Amino acid sequence: MLVWIHGGGFRIGTGASPMYDGSGLARRGDVVVVAINYRLGALGFLNLPEVGPCNAGLLDQVAALRWVREQIGHFGGDPDNVTIFGESAGGKSVECLMALPEARGLFQRAIVQSTYDPPMDSGVAADEARALLGDLGVRSDSGQVDFDRLRSLPVDEILAAQNRRTLAAMESGGGIADALRGWSPVVDGEVMPISPIEALLNGDAPEIAMVIGTTRDEAKLFTTMMPMLAGLEPAGLPAMVGVLGGDGRDPEQLIAAYRESRGADVPPTDVFAAAMTDRMFRQHALRVAEARAVHQRDIWMYLFDWSGFGMDGALGACHALEIPFVFGTLNSRLGRLAGAGPDAEALSLAMQDAWLAFARNGDPSTPTLQWPRYDAARRATAAFGPAVEVREAPLDRERLAWSVETP
Fold it and tell me: Which residue among 22, 39, 249, 273 is least packed, with the fewest CB closer than 10 Å?
């Protein structure tokens, strides 16, 4: 059986979205599909110990998995054969659940779609939580919290204050990274004793098999909404990429890697989107895969490579575009951006069959896709696009550019 964890930056979203309709997937694979909800934003991730448990949203996910274990047999599901899967914040949630002692034994397999690496420092999150409580007028200058008043606040008022702080962070120039700070899982030493990637490096949960991957153009979902990129000239590209590097990487070397990999005439906006994709998503997914492969042989990597038709193709293979293919919901709002026709339908069936095969028997190979396990030597990757095929170390010139150690 399959348990879906929705994305949305740990702030928005619902498992009830039409694009997550699991009925087609359930019929095709003769499986039970469950989509869960969990508390979001300040309601789920207000990380301040004196107010309440940290990582409450993750504990909601654990509670849902416990319910599945105890009750799913009444719906025809097998509680001893549970695959959790999720995208974006849902993918990060899957990654986190593999590191949570509370979640041990509640699932056997994990599919991690477009995970990322948000700030997980509990101190930074606590500072943001204190600032929010100050804005709400429930925390004094001396640090005392008026718990009675906090508990009496309308939910809308809490969320409005959270949104104001998010907007202020974006407008201050901190961008998406600053906006994500404070309202996502943190390493608190209790619910999450260590970071997910540390847990994987330590060999935690060695029994759990994993599929992990990203879309080719994750960041194009965001760059198409960034007006400062309009008319970006080659001369301005190093400064923009330098902001993404942020840790001493030479932007000229990164740009050269993308031009070598994708062609000398690739537009500056596409180079920036590729660098942002790597910075936010793909390089983290590769690190997770490599960490996992040290202790667990059963790991598979994919790259979603289908360009959507939305915005005259400007979205490319953007963030979340694989979702309607996995669920078979090409008639949903997002699905209509993805495209239609026999090729799209064939790709959707190929992805569904791979996800279902993995859920059923722990190997995503199908009669039409012999999908090798991932390792750091071969880097075999299943590409899901106009062609469904296995590629050896795709986009490796770009990976190597990011893997160079910085001063």
Answer: 39
Q: Helix or strand or coil: residue 297?
A: coil
In terms of DSSP H, where are the helices of 98-248?
Answer: 122-135, 147-152, 155-169, 175-180, 196-201, 220-223, 237-245
Residues 6+ apart with CB under 8 A from 65: 3, 82, 84, 97, 103, 106, 107
Amino acid at 65: L
pLDDT value of residue 406: 44
Query: Could you list the active site residues?
Result: 88, 218, 319
Whether pTM > 0.90 for this model: the answer is yes
Kindly tell me if the per-residue pLDDT of 395 is higher than 70: yes
pLDDT at 404 over 70: no
**Dist CA 59 CA 65 (whole Å):** 10
pLDDT-derived band at 219 (thresholds 50, 70, 90) equals: very high
pLDDT of 183 above 80? yes
Can you read off the two tokens belonging to residue 397? 């010139």
- Distance between CA 377 and CA 267 in Å, rounded? 32
CA distance 194 to 270: 36
**Residue 327 identity:** F
* Cross-strand bridge partners of residue 212: 112, 301
Note whether 185 and 94 are within 8 A (CB): no
